[in-house]
Amino acid sequence: MNVSFRWLFFFVFAAGAFFLSFPAFSTAQAAPLTQIKNVRVHADKEKVRIVVDADGEVDYKSMTLASPGRVVVDISGARISSSVAKSQKIESQFATKVRLGQFNPTTVRIVVETEMYKSSSNYDVFSLEGGPVPYRVVMDFGNLSGSAGSSTSSAGGASSGGSNIDFGHGTGSSDDSGSSSDGGQSSSGMTRSRSQSSAAPGIGGKRIVLDPGHGGSDTGAIGPTGVTEKSIALRIAKRLKALLEAEGAEVILTRTEDTEVSPKKAKATDVEELQARCDIANQNSADIFLSIHLDAFSGPEAHGTTGYYYEMGSADSTRLADCVKRGVLRRLGTLDRGTKPCAFYVCRHTDMPAMLLETAFVSNPREEQMMNSEEGVENAAQGIAAGIAEYFQ
């Protein structure tokens, strides 16, 4: 009798342990995976550009391999759509083939056969966000260093052949498009020396460039009721400008109205539009650069605030992203989605500490409503201002 009881107890205990562990397993598996929807290849005499289209936010890492030469990009939290070609030949001296496969259940691996891996000036990997294709990872291979200035060309400047590549910019398209002809106190301007108080604590005298994401032909993300990312980003930036100037800062907006930053307007490629934003900060020797965005996802449930900094950038960029994100969280009460490394173009091609803020999710009904209100805009601006003040302490 005692033996039987011991076996029964063991069985009940084991079964209970199994079922208690099951919900955690289910929750982990429930996280939606981003779909890789397409891989587009363009080759010309200057370079090869490979664009990977995704339907959601992507994180990736890249590495190089020799014998044969390859550049490998792993996209995490992703799966390949059944319609995507798994291999494409490339007729170019810069790359010969691109292959992709499901490396593991949550990672898509992209392999480009190329000898350009031998020099970092001959290949570039970066991400773009917004427009008709929500998220993209771009890979360039070829003569990148001399295209349109070193900072422009590493991602394909205007003279590199990149302008021949269709990113669907007519309806919007870049991770940081937004814009202005009269953010032009800088875009047309002479190079200026960095503000005299750069090393002093406090906001007073600091030269700050604010980049309201998207604009003009590029709406950015669109919320359930039609609220556009570009409009909210500009409202936040204008209010933030007033707050910072009241503390003695010199503030430059990359755009002050609903238009593109690049002189080419809607005809600009994504990279030309993004570089125009970087030029404003670089030519004005800004102390910091902050690009303001709203996030989006294919489902309405995603929510929260994220701060991004260039993964190979300075510790100051990381600290800036962390301070600003923390300030926004305190005022908006949103979910903390972390301070994350990125390769966003505007974070990568600016010469000063830089960050990109995903303030909240415009695709989330509650956060869309909040950010479309005067209170939401005010709280976001106050939170960013507090974060910038903390950074300059």
Count of structural domains = 2
What's the CATH class label of the largest domain? Alpha Beta
The number of distinct β-strands equals 16
Strand content is: 25-35%
CATH fold assignment of the largest domain: Aminopeptidase
| Rounded average pLDDT | 82
Q: Low-confidence segments, ≥5 residues, pLDDT <50? A: 19-29, 146-191
CATH H-level superfamily title of the largest domain: Zn-dependent exopeptidases
Tell me the structural class: alpha/beta
Strands of the widest sheet, in order across it, are 12-11-13-16-14-15
Describe this structure in words.
- This protein is an alpha/beta fold and 393 residues long.
- It folds into two domains: 34-166, Immunoglobulin-like (Sandwich); 184-391, 3-Layer(aba) Sandwich (Aminopeptidase), CATH 3.40.630.
- The chain has nine helices and 16 strands.
- The protein has helices at residues 2-30, 150-153, 184-187, 229-246, 270-283, 315-332, 345-348, 365-371, 374-391; strands spanning 34-43, 47-54, 59-65, 70-76, 78-80, 87-89, 97-104, 107-113, 123-129, 135-142, 207-212, 250-253, 288-295, 305-310, 336-342, 354-361.
- The strands form three sheets. The chain has a six-stranded mixed sheet, with helices on both faces. The protein has a five-stranded mixed sheet with strand order 5-1-2-10-9, with no helix packed on it.
- The longest helix is centred in the first third of the chain and has 29 residues, at 2-30.
- The chain is globular and about 60 Å long.
- The model is unreliable at 19-29 and 146-191 (pLDDT under 50).
